[in-house]
Design goal:
The chain is an alpha+beta fold and about 525 residues long. Helices cover about 65% and strands about 10% of the residues. The protein folds into 2 domains: about 30-150, no CATH class; about 155-525, no CATH class. The protein is built from 20 helices and 8 strands. The strands form 2 sheets. It has a 6-stranded antiparallel sheet with strand order 3-1-2-5-4-6, with helices on both faces. A two-stranded antiparallel ribbon has the order 7-8. It is elongated and about 80 Å long.
Length: about 525
Amino acid sequence: MKNNTVAATLVALLFGLIVLSLLDPKISFISKVTVRAAANLNLIFLQGNHTDEMACQEAASMVARVVTASCPTCVLTAQECVAGRDIDAGRYLGNQPLQFPSARATNGVIVYQSDSADIALSTCKGAETQTAGKSHQLTCDPPNIPRKSRGDTHIAMSLTSLKFWLTTLIVPFGISFLLGWGIIRYERLHANWSTDHVDGGPQKFHETPTPRIGGACVAAGLLSCASLLPVLNFPDVGNEITLLLVAGFAPFAGGLAEDLLKSAGVLNRLLFTMIGAAIASWLLGAILPAVDIPVLDALLQWSPVAIAFTVFAVSGVSNSINIIDGFNGLAGGFAILVLMSLAYVATQVGDQAIFAASIMLIGALFGFLYWNYPKGRIFLGDGGAYLVGFWLAELSVLLVVRNPAVSPWFPLLLLAYPVFETLFSSYRRALLRGRPAGHPDGLHLHTLFFRRVVGRRIGSSPPKTVTERNNSVAPQILLISLICIIPALLFWGNSRWLAAGTIFFCLYYSWLYFRITRWKTPRWLQ
């Protein structure tokens, strides 16, 4: 009865948040201006990532005035703003091949549309030649070939800026490290409510009671960095990351309540995570525009469906990171691999906010991992796992929303290990064993590694081998996760290859799982 009440409250609150988001959804807009430059030549000017429709309309008006003033013979034929989730407009701003030549500027694209391929290409090349060496230099891309991203010049500046790296990497690391030291040093003061006992359930694999509030270290690292970015002349990045932290407070608080009270329950944690995802969709426009599945893409063009789908996807990823957080270094190590991948793709498309947000969490996680692996002196806890999972999910959504060149399948393949672990576990519990899908057990892939792979190699006695076995799980699981991470990095803009990689990983996971359960562990793991 209690679970039904919680579930009903969750659905009602989620519906209310969706309605609230629709009152003022902060989605991005693309300005689109079309002029007829000659009898057989149209120029389409596009600029993306406008935060509101009024700003988009003003940008379109300015482009129209500049173009008509510099080209008196040109005729304005269209001036409009389209939603950032518009697939056709997004394709122009991305890196996919186009039917017509296009000239990429720093903040937009000019498409040369003509029935004559020679006229369109020569005009595009002429624009590139005329602007060579100028601040507004154009880069002409021929039709029907992948287009290179100009990127954002701030990314290149950041990569060589000591101030940037001190702020986004060293500061979060230092704060997280120091708070971890304080939690361990003064454990006696908070042990009654922060300790994870050794006999707390089927997923406990440590020898001594250990603090499970390591998420506070990660949160403090992120907060310290976000507070410094605006002060150190990174205001735009700092503002976006601050809004992301505001949204991330809800999943962190829901998880921390479980760490302290030990009775919050998975539904309540999911509820808080959904609240955070809905807030992010409202404040940052983090709403998935498409997933490259035709039927679902058609549904996602309707805002309520897009918001609900994104909210459930974010909460699912957040919960999946909590599920794999069973051994020293596993969740933190996997998150760092994902963040490095997100940071790399962010540099390819010129998204500084995603890049900075990825680096700062890497720093905070390294500060935590110093105490967690291999020492096992502090655990991430539900608060940390949900915060990290939420951060990964939202950065993935924002990267896709703001950069049409990035395939929606990129984050799915990147996060395939924890996501499929969650789906497979739910299937195993509910359909194969007849138990509630959220009921904890000791049959995850990482726990099977502990008992049947590592345990068989190292042994299960004396008790001191528990820590050694615990520390041996993460490196092997992380190696397996590279099966999905490496292809995601190689084909981050190609949905077909990414979808194929996702299917392959799911099949490989299933094969490996059933091999281990039948005591037929592959030779390379023994």
